Amino acid sequence: MVTLLNLELTEFSEKLDNALQATGDMYLARIYAAALELFRVHVVGTAVDRKLAIIRDTYTALHDESSSAGGASGNPRGGANRVGNCASVRASVTWMSRQPTSEWDPTGALHETT
């Protein structure tokens, strides 16, 4: 009788533990979603992706410029090409610096800056 009662108590305890774990997981998922929204992770992620794209484009432009400069390959117009390409890169950087960016303030406010 005692063994049967102990077995039933153990089974009940395991079922209760599993139910609480599932409820706890759902609760933690809701907290996680609320934290993502509170800290505006999607806004920060979008800003980071945009800045990475700008860096990638700038790197590509500079790499293409250095490849086509012809300094080591003997191209006599290498210097002139470099000046023209640098002007276009400067124009791109100036344009990028005017684009609005989101800055996160620790007080919780999101500021748009230019």
List keywords for this structure.
2 strands, rod-shaped, about 110 residues, mainly alpha
Explain this structure to me?
The protein has 114 residues and is mainly alpha-helical. It has 2 domains: 1-38; 42-114. It is 75% helix and 7% strand. The chain has a two-stranded antiparallel ribbon with strand order 1-2. Helix 2 (41-69) packs antiparallel against helix 3 (78-97). The termini are far apart.
Q: Indicate the low-confidence ranges by residue numbers.
A: 76-81
**Quick one: how many beta strands?**
2
How far apart lie the N and C ends? 77 Å
Mean of residue pLDDT?
74
Q: What structural class do helix, strand and pairing data support? A: mainly alpha
Note the overall shape. rod-shaped
Helix % is over 70%
Count of discrete structural domains: 2
Report strand %. Answer: 5-15%
Sheet with most strands: 2 strands, antiparallel
Order of helices and strands: HHHEE
Instruction: Tell me the number of helical segments per DSSP (H or I, 4 or more residues long).
Output: 3
**Rg (C-alpha, Å):** 30 Å
| Sheet with the most strands: spatial strand order | 1-2
